[in-house]
Amino acid sequence: MVWTPLHAKIHRTIRSRHLFERNQRLLIAVSGGQDSLCLIKLLLDLQSKWGWALGIAHCDHRWRSDSQANAHHVENLAETWGTSFYLETANEPINSEAAARDWRYQALSAIAQANNYQYIVTGHTASDRAETLLYNLIRGTGADGLQALTWQRPLTTGIMLVRPLLEVTRIQTEQFCQEFKLPIWEDSTNQDLQYARNRIRQELIPYLRGNFNPQVESALAQTAELLQAEVEYLEKAAQQLREEASTFSSSPLLPTPHSPLPLRLNRRVLQKAPLALQRRVMRQVLQQILTDAANFEHIEKLTALITAPNRSQTDPFPGGAIAQVEGDWIYLK
Questions:
Q1: pTM here?
Q2: Is the pLDDT of residue 257 over 50?
């Protein structure tokens, strides 16, 4: 086996970030593209050092005419490498990126649970992280959206989603695949500029790289890494503040098991906190009562009640809930 600097980098990353334990069962999501082929090659080469049992999973969304041939290509690679192969095919074509992502993670989770894999591993790179940050920045998300694509997160009970390549750019995975002559399957949809992410990848990132920073992908990925730690800290602090504001009274008002409402928050407790934590508390509260993610307007009009005159109230939130000020309390009913 040829031991490259990238092998050493990923070996160190896995060890220093405690991404996997030794002798675990890892299910690798392999599309056939350069990032996933780079990932599976690296993990196969590191397998003897860690004692992993590796499996390859491929999800066929059926949205390309060559998707079945793509699946056979990945299956042949798995057979060549002597690795277990699992295929999940959509019942009907999935035509949106969000729907495809949700279906893919559900499919991978089902395969992992049925075959006793503790980890699902994907080939997301620093380039993906940079693109996600830009995509969410343009859409107007806060720090939570900008730090998306974390190193690991629980996917379902007992199964962790892990992304070991978040410090590796797409240029590096391409060079690695060329060095080892890995047979990349070119996904034609990656060139389709009707998708916003493809326009960011094909047009915006190259423009930023050429005109502002040749290392823009790594720089943005590092920003996401910094934001991840800060978001984690702020979420915990907001959770503590929300609990204090909800139980300030000796007789706290609690929601029933069947409904998150009514809820109440003590304004005096919230008034002592910085605006950043006030907003996060309100966002957490709204997550309990809204079916869709709370937007900036929802959070701001609820936050405004912290200092609003008595008897102030909001117009209805989606779903019909209303927030009202009664003395020291904000009630959501």
A1: 0.86
A2: no
